[in-house]
Hints:
Elements: H1 4-7, H2 17-26, H3 28-31, H4 39-51, H5 60-69, E1 73-74, E2 81-83, E3 91-92, H6 94-111, E4 115-119, E5 142-146, H7 151-166, E6 170-176, E7 179-185, H8 187-199, E8 207-211, H9 218-224, H10 229-236, E9 248-252
Parallel strand pairs: 2-4
Antiparallel strand pairs: 1-3, 4-5, 5-7, 6-7, 8-9
Amino acid sequence: MLSVRAYSRLLKTTLPGCAILTMLVTMGPLSAQTLQGSRTSMDRQVRAAQQHDFTFIDTPERVRFFVDQGWLVRIDSSRDFVVKNDVRYPSARPEVQLFAERLGRQYRRACGEQLVVTSLTRPTTHQPRNASDRSVHPTGMALDLRYSWNRSCREWLQGVLSSLERQGVLEATLERNPRHYHVALFPEPYANYVASLTARGVGGPESLEYRVRRGDSLWTIARAHGTSVDELRDINGIRGNRIYVGQVIDVPQGG
């Protein structure tokens, strides 16, 4: 079993550990990718694993051990998202579970279909042939999502992933063979991000689910509920100004 510190020696460059999480948050908007993937993106993923002191799990037995210890949690299908039956190790870090639950709920409301999770934790000895030798799937901090051939669903999901990438809480890549989204979640920044949303009344008891009606615009909805267009875009993963009649969006309440 490789420790994350040994694994990180595969990198050609390193950063001081104490600065990594700060950079993930503060540099996110400046260095956001366009879901194309890059060596820099892979560097960020491995460095985030290093900062969290995650282990790159090497065998199925160690995956089960991590689940027994509570370091990984089982992720089951829900009304909002599906974990495919062929996912051999349906477990991940608790923050990944939270991410799947939140994103699945929003995705289903936005486009009317379930989000599909196609991969979660994978031990290093059971990686697919085309996997990168620096993949963070063995740490339990990553998941793969199915590519939707519904254009509206696809654009919504890509908008949300791009927005979260800009905020420094994950790195997302549209993989080509087979076509899917690889998402490496940065657990501590993501947990802080969710806590911030909760404090602002987004996605919790103080949040309003608003169904778009004919004649609505982001500007009229924002003005009616005391928020801003930028806030609505960020929360709901909307790019530009386009919304659809019948679409359900989160609107923060109470400032």
